[in-house]
Design goal:
Shape: flat
Distance between the termini: 65 Å
Order of helices and strands: EEHEHHEEHHEEHEHHH
Helix content: 40-55%
Strand content: 5-15%
Number of helices: 9
Number of strands: 8
Length: 312
């Protein structure tokens, strides 16, 4: 198996428990930082596995290390290759314990046991690798936006929920990539020592709603984080995702559904814009809406919706 973690293995050792909750958790007017990271991930990372609950929490999955498939660990006759087993025996047994795969003998691992471990770990390993790639790419983006005050953050004392401290700007967010990842993972910081990796976080970080959607939209246009490489199970990436094209396609499909429903026969352009904004927010309007509507009415059966505007 290709070890795409590289030097990211240490990320798995951080505490990702705060990502095992609904991504929109918030207090007052601020979204909890892990929820904001999830929001950015869905717009900036590709391919994002929507069917996986709490995807970024998988960053804590045990890395596979440099394991190899059974065909590289045994001869065609099923005889263990000594050099491979000497190097990987302890690692494979550790994986077997974690994945609850039984190994019968203390001196060797059979081909069937080796295959079972590889099959059992494949999805967890792939998700962990993808989540760590996502975090590695997202952390500096979010830190930069906070440093440039494009998103506004505040810290809330974990022991006294009434105490709030503004932590926006370079004073708080001028972080190197490792510091950014640690803050993203913890969802907090130590207010007295915000740049000390050994300081225990005593404040949660929240992001103010105001300006957040604009910052996410900007990141969607200008940033891109690939979360798959050679191996990523069924979520393998084939090419760089065109987020704008995907967005136009989504709005097009939505408009086609409205036009074909029979409930919008007398609707004018502003009615469709209203429905699109309810479904997609401001990002679905403007040029995106114009392109989507043009695509929707390209079919002759919907051409009648082409030029309908409110009379002055």
């Amino acid at each position: 198996m290709h070890d795409i973690d590289g030097d990211r293995d240490w990320i798995a050792g951080l505490d990702w428990s705060k990502y095992r909750r609904p991504h929109a958790d918030y207090v007052g007017e601020g979204f909890f930082l892990p929820g904001v990271v999830e929001m950015f991930a869905r717009q900036v990372c590709a391919p994002y596995p929507d069917e996986i609950d709490f995807f970024l929490a998988n960053a804590g999955n045990t890395p596979p290390g440099r394991v190899v498939p059974a065909e590289d660990a045994f001869t065609a006759d099923g005889v263990p290759l000594f050099s491979v087993h000497r190097r990987l025996d302890a690692l494979m047994r550790s994986h077997a314990d974690e994945l609850e795969v039984a190994i019968a003998r203390a001196d060797t691992i059979s081909r069937d046991e080796w295959t079972t471990v590889m099959d059992a770990g494949q999805d967890d390993w792939a998700l962990g690798q993808g989540a760590r790639r996502a975090v590695d790419g997202l952390a500096p983006i979010i830190a930069r936006l906070a440093a440039e005050k494009k998103i506004r953050c505040h810290a809330r004392d974990r022991n006294d929920s009434g105490r709030i401290t503004e932590i926006t700007g370079r004073k708080w967010w001028d972080l190197d990539p490792e510091q950014a990842i640690r803050r993203i993972a913890s969802g907090g910081l130590n207010l007295a020592s915000p740049f000390d990796p050994d300081a225990i976080p005593d404040h949660h970080v929240f992001v103010t709603r105001d300006g957040l959607q604009n910052a996410i939209a900007e990141a969607q246009r200008t940033e891109y984080v690939a979360i798959a490489f050679v191996e990523f199970g069924k979520w393998v990436i084939r090419r760089r995702a065109d987020h704008y094209a995907v967005q136009v396609a989504e709005v097009t499909g939505f408009l086609i559904g409205l036009m074909d429903s029979g409930a919008f026969e007398t609707a004018i352009n502003e009615d469709f814009e209203y429905e699109v904004e309810k479904e997609f927010g401001k990002r679905g309007l403007g040029r995106c809406f114009e392109r989507a509507k043009a695509a929707a009415i390209a079919d002759e059966s919907r051409a009648r919706f082409g030029k309908r505007r409110r009379q002055a």
